[in-house]
Amino acid sequence: ASKQAQLMEVLKKEVRAMLIAAKAGLTPEQLEEQYMAMVCKPLPLRDLGFQSTLELVTQMPEVVRICSKNGTVILKAIADDSTKGIAELVANQKVRTRKASKKTATKANAIFPTKNSKNPQSSQTLSARTPVLPATMKAELQDLLSSSPLLLTDLGKAFLRRFGRAFQYRQYGFLSMFEVFRSMSDSIVVEQTKAGSLLVLRKYLASTIEQEEVPQAVSTAEMPPLEPICETESCLAAQLMDLKPVQTQAVDLGDHLKQHQDFGQFPSTAEIPPDAVQDRRLCSLPPLKRRRLVGVIVESVVSPSQFYVRICSTEASNKLEDLMFEMRHVYSHKVASDKYIMPESAVRPGQLCCVMVSKWWYRVIIHRVINEQEVEVFYADYGRLQIVQKSSLRFLKWHYLKLPAQAIPCSLAWVKPVEGTWSSAAILLFKHLCRFKEFVGIVDEYVDGVLYLFLCDTSTKKDVYFHSVLRDMGYADVCGENIPSQEFEELNPSALYVQPSAKQGNAEVVEPDLHLQQDSRDADSETATLMLDGAEL
User: Fold this and answer.
1) Are residues 324 and 403 in the same domain?
2) Does 218 map to a domain?
3) Domain CATH code at residue 37
4) What b-and-e string marks burial along 88-104, b requiring 16 or more CB atoms within 10 Å of the CB?
5) In 3-state terms, the chain is what percent helix, strand and coil (to 5)?
6) pLDDT (tens digit, 9 = 90+) per residue, 504-527?
7) What's the pLDDT tens digit per position in 399-440?
């Protein structure tokens, strides 16, 4: 009984934190998904003697308010003294309209002090960020439209039939379907027809026009067709963002890794294709300039001192999506897939390869061999460790080496945990802050290959700085310097398996197209050093 009471108290705090972060509330099913994603285990219904999530929350009247909207049960949080601050932040989220979006696009201001200034007076404007779909979700929509155009009114049913779940675009911050496809205007066109709004792939549209102009032109290098997708499979975006993290620690790879540190070639055999990657590593992205503003998506979180981001730019997103589509086309063909099966001698730590998850193929590096059937791999483009079946691995084709690893190892700048290590509540809060949004990152510096940056959510009425939220909630101290990440010191797969960009030694640093305000992009480093919410430091 005492254990159940303790478990219930902990659960109340976790449920309150999750519901507070959801301004519109959550359905019981969404709460179950959020709990699995954040706490990495199912709701302990049986341990507490409950048959359903709804039955559980009815026993939390001081934590959960049960509402009904259009016949759907909605769960909302009841804030207590310790969470009122976060509740106010969420309540201040903007309700964006067409008029408001134009107005707010240039009015998200932030003042950041330098390390030598306690009361800076000048400021730099950050552009308000629009919602963003994960790359895998974009790929699924493009895949859905790859066979033929689709009426907007039929999209929901078609998406449900193909992927076995509803297209819940609102969880990514969008208010309507039109907003979703406006954000994907570079790849999907919305045409107005007598039957209604028609969704057409821009590539499909271009190929149709080309065929009309040159009717006898036929491609001799047509890619093999995609295998049909099981209607009950969930998307990889959900799996990569929500899968249960592996309890990984720094592994002493010993002589086994040292033996292969130089990634020497395997003994030549007729079974290994000549274009299979055997002795190469992916390169990292070129380093970002200090004090620059960048659009980022947080792809994977362990703690505020250990997380991975991906740079938001049209070019980078398109390249990653194109890579995903091409790999799926190639490896989904049984002949090609069988051709690149890896022999047991190739399954070793440090080996670059690819893995299939729900029909999508991803570039990974083998971190360690678990047993005869399983290995732990590192997703080079998403920054996540996961245990997978050896049978799902394939050699990576040389062609797929070109795109640098997209995941950047990061730590939140200028903060340290008040307790020496990050508490579970601090990590849970940070994960909520990071979830399914595009943020403004302010580059501070690189330490041992780890990018230290500030994160700011400009989608609210008042810009929200993550370091300030952690400090105000009593989870972090703002120390004005970057403490080396203990987590990355124990294990940094990027440092182990991804080689530094060739441009890192050059004076010129390549900046991605980040779609921030022109004056922010062009501001010199002296102006851009005005950082960190100085009024509250």
Assistant:
1) yes
2) no
3) 3.30.420.610
4) ebbeeeeebeeeeeeeb
5) 35, 20, 40
6) 433 333 333 333 333 333 443 433
7) 999 999 999 999 999 999 998 899 999 999 999 899 877 899
